[in-house]
Design brief:
about 425 residues; mainly alpha; Growth Hormone, Chain: A; globular; disordered C terminus
């Protein structure tokens, strides 16, 4: 049962959380893992395996540690302290990484340094994220969360259009030759997320209902195992979400394909970022309305369809380019529809990955449910880093076909998900919520 919160306080919480999300979304576009970071690593190494690992690495490090600290988070009446501490560590590491990239220009040192420092930064960000979702669940009513995340993404999209321009301007500027242009982007990223965290920390978090028991890691993992065995709806949710996570194996290689095959120049990555952000911004509010009115299981089904269509579009692009031997400065623009469609379905990923599980779990179990699903998601996205090997064995078309097949599996699983609450105009069945 949700605690009664005065409407004025809800509006304040809503505004601060939206502002936090808008700044974070702007910041993420500055270092966009599937595009900017992947592009960065592709210039340090010819290895498709390492290039394909960049985006999964960012997600895996964010997700993986969460179940291991979930019991500690559950024992806290207020989670904001954890959010603040881990968030500050994250900012510090990103600023350190910016300095390393600025002063070190030896690829054999930059490559491991990037993976180590970015891994630490993403991991501390994930620990902050676990506390973030618990605070959101305590301060924003269930039926407002779809709109909350939609407005975060929409306003972040408006700012993100400017981020695409910033990326293009910095990377094209002769004053910032590689890799210093990326160091500037990392510095801007760290400064922006510091402001974003300040807004969220200003929320007045109410006391929650802590779990009294202090559990060992083994005992907490045992509880997680029982949840997987006993909760059928949760297992179906995980199956759909993990299949969608694996389907993103192709995402980093849309940009790599454009660079290596279509001949996209350095600054073109900013155009691709802007295209993704524009589509994301345009579709954010409709996704939020759909989440609030029809439920997040519908969101997950439609997201599966959208991801599959993007992969099929990639297969078509490879076939056309190979058959017609296209050349010219206009050819890199043929990849734009891939980034537009990916941006259009991205808000659905954010909603289905967070809102549905928040509705499933009670307050005392929320950290366990979120932490477990995120840790398993981290394992899956790390596995998806083998996309580079798939390209080596089956080419870009083979990788895109694999992504399309995984989207089909996700759709089938999502179709069997129950509603976790009443949706507008039609009552949903009772569940364990």
């Amino acid at each position: 049962m949700e605690a009664a919160i005065p409407k004025r306080e809800i509006r304040r919480n809503f505004a601060l959380t939206v502002f936090n999300g808008a700044l974070f979304n702007f910041a993420v576009r500055l270092i966009d893992p599937p595009l900017v970071l992947t592009w960065f690593v592709s210039q340090l190494t010819p290895s498709n395996l390492l290039v394909g690992l960049v985006a999964p690495w960012s997600q895996a490090c964010w997700f993986l540690p969460q179940v291991f600290v979930s019991n500690r988070i559950q024992r806290m009446e207020r989670k904001m302290t954890s959010y603040s501490l881990t968030g500050m560590i994250r900012v510090g590491v990103w600023l350190l990484l910016a300095a390393v990239i600025w002063f070190v220009d030896v690829p054999r040192l930059l490559l491991p340094g990037f993976f180590i420092l970015s891994g630490i930064a993403w991991a501390t960000g994930g620990l902050a994220g676990l506390s973030f979702f618990d605070v959101v669940a305590k301060t924003i009513p269930t039926r407002r969360r779809g709109s909350l995340f939609a407005w975060r993404q929409f306003l972040g999209g408006l700012l993100g259009l400017g981020a695409g321009w910033v990326v293009k301007t910095v990377l094209d500027d002769a004053a910032y030759p590689f890799p210093r242009g990326h160091a500037v982007l990392f510095l801007l990223y760290g400064a922006t997320i510091l402001l974003a965290m300040g807004a969220f920390i200003a929320i007045r978090e109410p006391r929650g209902e802590p779990v009294a028991d202090t559990l060992s890691l083994r005992e907490q993992l045992g509880r997680a195992s029982r949840v997987l065995k006993e909760d059928d709806a949760y297992r179906r949710y995980l199956g759909a979400r993990l299949s969608l996570g694996l389907s993103e194996v192709a995402l980093p290689f849309y940009g790599v394909y454009a660079k290596r095959v279509l001949g996209a120049p350095e600054g073109m990555v900013g155009v691709y970022v802007a295209a993704r952000v524009f589509a994301q911004m345009f579709f954010n509010l409709p996704w939020g309305w759909l989440s609030d009115r029809r439920g997040n299981q519908v969101v997950m089904r439609l997201m599966s369809i959208g991801g599959g269509l993007a992969a099929l579009m990639g297969i078509g692009l490879v076939a056309v380019v190979d058959a017609m031997h296209l050349e010219g400065g206009w050819v890199p623009y043929l990849a734009l529809p891939l980034f537009l469609l990916n941006g259009a379905v991205l808000p659905g990923k954010i909603l289905s990955g967070s809102n549905y599980v928040l509705e499933m779990a009670s307050e005392t179990e929320r950290s366990l449910y979120v932490g477990l699903s995120n840790t398993l998601m981290g394992i899956v996205v790390l596995i998806s880093g083998v996309g580079g090997l798939v390209v080596d064995l089956a080419g870009f078309a083979g990788l895109f076909a694999l992504s399309a097949g995984l989207c089909i599996i996700a759709y089938v699983l999502a179709k069997r998900l129950p509603r976790t609450r009443e949706t507008a105009g039609e009552p949903g069945p009772d569940t364990h919520v």
